[in-house]
Write a structure and sequence with these properties.
Blueprint (H helix, E strand, L loop, with lengths): L11 H7 L9 E7 L5 E3 L7 E3 L1 H13 L4 E6 L19 H13 L4 E6 L21 H18 L3 E4 L6 H11 L6 E8 L6 H7 L19 H13 L3 E5 L5 H10 L4 E5 L1 H12 L5 H15 L3 E4 L2 H6 L5
Parallel strand pairs: 1-3, 1-4, 1-10, 4-5, 5-6, 6-7, 7-8, 8-9, 9-10
Antiparallel strand pairs: 2-3
The chain binds ligand PBG and zinc ion.
Length: about 325
Amino acid sequence: MLNRSRRLRTSAAMRNLVAETDLRPRHLIQPHFVQPHPGSSEIASLPGIVRAGVEDTVRQAEKDLKRGLASVLLFGVPDAEAKNPDASYCRDQEGVIPQAVKALKQAFGSDLIVMTDVCLCGYTSHGHCGLVDGEGVVMNDQTLPLLAEMALRHAEAGADVVAPSDMMDGRVAAIRAMLDENGYTQASILSYAIKHAGAYYGPFRDAADSSPKFGDRKAYQMDPRNAREGLRDALLDVEEGADMLLVKPALPNLDIVWRLRQATLAPLCAYHVSSEFSSVKAADRLGWLDGDQLMHQHLLAIRRAGADMIVTYAGREALEKGWVS
Ligand code: PBG
Ligand code: ZN
């Protein structure tokens, strides 16, 4: 036989020689849920992930950084009493995210990339990602100044990257203008360019206490039936000043990651979201499969499709258990 593909699969060293895809610590971004009070509590639907106060967050980030996990994405989890229809807590200089960013930057300086989520859903009493009018419609243009101000608070505190996830039109331009006007020309924008509506974010909403109190997010997040819609939007985000683009959920959208990789030169990020993580964990607990190996394969597939970096709840574990090094 002239062609025997198995020749190149004979040993681990041979397989490594011809491997096309790498998964390294530098590709991983670890999410953190940060609460305004000390201590930490487990999130039942996200095994191994906690909501933590600023001090505990810094301590955890330090352990992770020693293992090579050098990027974090912060989500604020304000107390229920701090929420209102206007999300005013998101503008607070002393809010939980500005505090956490300052503490992380003070501890690790430029060794740690600090990214922050910019969205209102964790801060509004109604749980929508933007301001809502009398009919319950999420208002686009009225939401933009608030998102821009929230991003500015994060940049003032020292955030390297702000990551708007709200899906309002024009938010990247609004945030870029606000940051530049105030001298934060070096703060980058990672835009959630393609974000599908649906069931993939359930455990996250438990963690962030950010479920909509009425309706759903289908009038702002994208229709999972569409791919072109997202590609079009992603290119607009680049025009508006996005430095990096994000696609989520990851595995159901590998076709889109691949197509976006061809369509733009910008660095690409994919978010391996809460349900993708938690469904592996749940099946592993039932003894139905090897969760670690499956999780690893998920992340490899995302890299192979063209993502430069991955937001994943499995980051820490991957390094602790050594299946990424
Ligand atoms: C906030 C936000 C969500 C996620 C990231 N940012 C939830 C949502 O849109 O309801 C989901 C992440 C995950 O499921 O892990 N807009
Ligand atoms: Zn939101």
